[in-house]
Amino acid sequence: MNSEFKNKWVLVLGGSSGLGLASAKKLAAHGMHLILVYRERKAPEEALVAEMTEIHKSGIKTVLINDNALDKDSRKNIIDKIKMELGNEKIYCLLHSIAKGNLKSLGTPDQPQATKEDFDITLHAMATSWWEWTSGLVAANLFAGDSRNISFTSEGNKKFIPNYGVVAAAKATLESMARYMAVELASVGIKTNIIQSGVVETPSLKMIPDSEKIIELTQKRNPFKRLTKTEDIANVVYLLCKDEGKWINGAVICADGGESLL
Fold first, then answer.
1. Residues of the chain scoring pLDDT < 50
2. Residue 38: which domain range?
3. 107-128 residues labelled b (16+ CB within 10 A) or e (exposed)
4. 262 domain-assigned
5. Beta bridge partners of 154
């Protein structure tokens, strides 16, 4: 195990799969302790626990919390639990990787139509919950003096993807929030950034209608003729967490192999 991030903690919201889990494993490989908050059924959780048990054997502390990160009372209880677990230690990185949204049309005939409730659920899960967690951790004095606050966006908030309008609105909100948090949280040492990933074959991608066509087109469009891997994005999270990344603040970093250029 590399000890580059010795005694540092990352809190991953949505850490049981996809970009969140890949990033957690990358940071753990460099010595960072893990707090994973997720919502999973029994079988997926058992697989996650087994994987984290192996990581724990290498000297990495692992705190696994299967709870609803989007519920106000649950969030408060989780923060209280984290404070008790960490003692005098602090969170170095908050990684927001919650992927919960409704994929519906905003007007295409013969397609399921989005409702205000769809917008409310998606905007909260994929955007404003990041701010709620950030604010809660600041209020609890749980952030380290030099810390990182990271979330994920996609090309879909700038370029049309069928049935993606509700999620696109959430991602646009996320990016706007990041700019304001980058300025307002600088006074307490928090650097806020967003990573724009290329198309990654994750469970959330498979929920998009005709995802097979998206995968096929992306493989043709990307200059490197492949999809983005979860490891590609985990590498960028790692780079932002390094000491050399501490002057990056308020950025949307595109990590797609040049996919969005075409």
1. none
2. 9-254
3. eeeeeeebeeebbebbbbbbbb
4. no
5. 197
